[in-house]
Please model this.
Amino acid sequence: MKRTSPRRQQRYLLRLLALGFMALGIVACQKQIVPEESCNFVQNSADQRVSWGAETLDFYIHESVPSEYYMAIHNAADTWNEVLGREVIRIEIEGVAGDINDRRDNVSMIYLMDTWDNDNLREQARTSVRWRGTQIIESDILLNDQYFNFSVEPKTPLYYVDLESLMVHEMGHAIGLAHVEDDQSVMHPQLARGEERRLVSDLDIESLTCEY
Model:
């Protein structure tokens, strides 16, 4: 059996110690994941809030959305921007062409859908949010045109869904907010036909302060 010299053994032990200290240093330098209070925000698997943070959510309007809906969409974005005191939602381009089913492309889009899932017939709209860590990277809004009629009139007719109220709600989801039970909040999960709920409540503002 070949014997190892004491000097070589010493060098080997020093290498092991150095590797050990390097490993400890890497662990010590890693950012610690700390769970957060929800503040009525969607949370990731580590119980941290997800949002756009300092980034701006750039929305594109798909060509499926009629031009008469544009004003209500812009008004809804302005509602959140005024509350936050900065442009957190920006409407980039209207009438964008493309496959209505080609999503998950890191482009945030608003669509009008003429077909809807049969198991969610009462769903007026749906916002899907994708994130990486705590940073939202895409928010898509789908409007249920198959089972609902939308109104852009100053006073919403009975049996119509007020589009501006609905867009305020869905854009709240798009920036990270979850549903709440307070019926004064724009994030309440139910909006009756003919009802208008366009103004952000004190609870909504309080929630926003956690992230924006």
Q: What stands out?
A: The chain has four helices and seven strands. Residues 101 and 111 are 10 Å apart (CA to CA). Strands lie at 57-61, 89-91, 108-113, 125-132, 135-144, 150-151, 161-162. The longest helix spans residues 6-29.
